[in-house]
Design goal:
- The chain is built from eight helices and six strands.
- α5 crosses α7.
- The radius of gyration is 16 Å and the shape is globular.
- A six-stranded mixed β-sheet has the order 3-2-1-4-5-6, with helices on both faces.
Length: about 190
């Protein structure tokens, strides 16, 4: 089981305003590493509500590159990869909006949503990242992009173990979900129930 878990934090209500990227890489069913990357947002301003949630402001990002400037570094984490996120509809829309705003071609990727998969399989009062992390005893510093990505990766591994499947495709298919896709040659295809 190989995939990249992602999490984006945004500076304001504009979906292209990524200010922080969290990445966690899973190879052969094991979390092998993670990374936190600050990004100068586009447009470059912070709403107080967003800063309240994640603690990031201009002092963290003013000397960093924009998403477009950092895309060559980031792209290998996305292109021809399986991606997961907790609430993937948000993170994939942020990716699309930012790529559109930056006039960058979409990478080829499949994606899965640990929120939707958790909601389908775990009998919990809530299925937010903090709820599911608590259920699986996963340490979480919520709204820290790297911590959120790591938690999503570990949740995906735990769900595959629980259902005795070896890939996220098997898990999604067994639960009746279509696999989400983003492609350079086609329109965005949202993750949905068959």
């Amino acid at each position: 089981m190989n995939f990249t878990a992602i999490d984006f934090e945004t500076a304001n209500s504009n979906r292209s305003s990524i200010c922080s990227v969290g990445i966690a890489v899973v190879e052969n069913g094991r979390l092998i590493g993670s990374e936190h990357i600050y990004v100068k947002p586009t447009p470059n301003y912070y709403d107080s509500f967003n800063t309240y949630l994640h603690g990031i402001d201009d002092s963290h990002t003013r000397s960093k590159g924009t998403f477009k400037e950092q895309w060559n570094y980031l792209k290998p984490y996305f292109h021809n990869r399986t991606i997961i996120a907790h609430n993937a509809s948000f993170d994939t829309s942020v990716l699309r909006f930012t790529l559109d705003q930056s006039k960058l071609e979409y990478p080829e990727l499949d994606y899965h949503c640990t929120y939707r998969l958790s909601k389908e399989t775990l009998n919990l009062p809530g299925h937010k990242l903090s709820d599911v992390s608590r259920h699986f005893n996963i340490r979480l510093q919520h709204h820290n992009a790297e911590s959120d990505a790591r938690a999503s990766a570990l949740i995906a591994i735990k769900l595959c173990e629980k259902h005795r499947v070896s890939t996220l495709n098997e898990l999604s298919t067994s639960l009746g979900f279509k696999i989400g896709k983003i492609s350079a040659t086609s329109k965005y295809k949202p993750f949905s129930k068959k």
